[in-house]
Amino acid sequence: MGQTNPPFMSGVPELLLLRLLEQREMYGYELVKAIKIVTGESISLGEGVIYPVLHSLERGGALKAKRKKVAGRTRVYYSLNAKGKTRLSRLQDEWLRIQSGVTAALGGTADA
């Protein structure tokens, strides 16, 4: 079994969060579960990783946070704004470039 958070995963939580929030608004634990699902359980990030990234993205102006009362509880829902969409686009481009290079170095084709 692989490491849950190997060093080369730096930046991946941000990319995954932005991609998921591009589709619809979500709250923190919902994002934790969604990451497991969309990655086929190959990536599992806990709340201790997710919330600091969400808070950093919010402080940086890439996300909007909105409190909603749900079943007697208050949840903070996050959504992507224009700055977040721009950030996502840059991160996706960078990821595809790096993926292509690593694939080529490992002996695969460089086509992404």
Number of strands: 3
Q: Find the CATH superfamily.
A: Winged helix-like DNA-binding domain superfamily/Winged helix DNA-binding domain
Provide the residue-averaged pLDDT: 89
Q: Secondary-structure element sequence? A: HEHHEEH
Termini separation comes to 27 Å
Please give the order of strands in the largest beta sheet. Answer: 1-3-2
Describe the biggest sheet? 3 strands, antiparallel
**What helical percentage do the residues reach?**
40-55%
The CATH architecture assignment turns out to be Orthogonal Bundle
- Count of individual helical segments: 4
Rg from Cα? 15 Å
Notes on the protein architecture:
The protein has about 110 residues and is α+β, with helices and mostly antiparallel strands. The protein has a single domain (about 10-100), classed as Winged helix-like DNA-binding domain superfamily/Winged helix DNA-binding domain (Arc Repressor Mutant, subunit A), CATH 1.10.10. The chain has four helices and three strands, in the order H-E-H-H-E-E-H. Strand 2 and strand 3 form a beta hairpin. Helix 2 (about 30-40) packs across helix 3 (about 45-60). It is globular.
Could you give a short description of this structure?
The protein has 112 residues and is α+β, with helices and mostly antiparallel strands.
What is the topology?
Blueprint: H1 12-23, E1 26-27, H2 28-38, H3 47-59, E2 63-70, E3 73-80, H4 82-105
Antiparallel strand pairs: 1-3, 2-3
Helix pairs in contact: 1-4, 2-3
